[in-house]
Amino acid sequence: MDQVYLNGSFLPRSEAQIPIMDRGFLFGDGVYELIPVFNKKVFLLEEHLKRLKNSLNLIQMNDVKGLDKIISTLIKKNTKNTFFIYLHISRGVQSSRNHIYSEHIEPTVLLMCEDYPAFSEDLIKKGFQATMQDDFRWMKSNIKSISLLGNVLLKNYASSNGCYETLLIRNKKLTEGSTSNVFIVKDEIIYTPKLSNELLPGVTRGLLIKLLNENHLKVIESDIYESDVVNADEVWCSSSTNAVVPIIKVDDNIVNNGRVGNITMKVHKIAQDFIINF
Ligand code: PLP
Question: What does pTM read for this prediction?
Fold first, then answer.
């Protein structure tokens, strides 16, 4: 059975236990990362660890050292070649349930492997539906927080309406998806919301912007309004799970006559080539 890492030990998942006084369990007080491993090679580790460090810093926690070594041991111990590493750091265990945290507790560090649910090429070519909702989450969505209730409700709203994703609108502007960043295309120019406290700085978002620039495809980070999404020529979502997920319908608005657009397919191919050759 695959092993997990918990606070200094590797052990079977069924034996790993967290005390009920863990602040992650009681308050959702912690941060996480989801890092892809392709053919036993960890993908964009530096970028994920950099974002983790920033998330820790934003919740006044110290950086955790030695994660790269734990990750390589976990990869060696896993029987699969392609999967995700779920990396979870909570503020730790405190003797009483108190919003005010003690400076002197050790963080809980958990790393485990999860299956990689990538979409088939056929599904990508067909495209997916999305819905739009008010972004009712808190104003620090740039932190990859384990408090995911808002995202959970919004993703389930998508799923129960036959959609892949819920695109989130705050003050008439697009922020991101419930589990992804969003790109739109208008008149052959690609747009994505500019970084702020209202969206996660997706590692895939960053990679796509770099690859688009290298491939001379014009991309602009800017405000995108709800009406821009509705009138877009193409729309796609990006995340570490699926770098490019084409969207062909947003609520009642059909995008590009219900077909995956040429630019989206081109970007999907560029991203796949990068992953294969990584
Ligand atoms: N935005 C949200 C809310 C997410 O949960 C995710 C991924 O989990 C992303 C964006 C995409 O981030 P990344 O590309 O780093 O996976």
Answer: 0.98
Catalytic annotation, pick one of 80, 144, 186, 266: 144
CB 33 within 8 A of CB 144: yes
CA R_g for the chain: 19
Determine whether the shortest distance from the Cβ of 151 to ligand 1 is under 6 A: yes
Q: How far is C-alpha 99 from the chain's CA centre? A: 27
Residue whose CA is closest, atom 9 of ligand 1? 180
Angle at 194 between CA 121 and CA 90, to 5 degrees: 80
Distance between CA atoms of 143 and 149, rounded to whole angstroms?
14
Note whether 204 and 243 are within 8 A (CB).
yes
pLDDT of residue 2: 83
Q: Ligand 1 in contact with 179 (CB < 6 A)?
A: yes
Q: Please, what are the domains in the chain?
A: 3-114 (3.30.470.10), 121-276 (3.20.10.10)
Residue with tokens 């009483």: 96
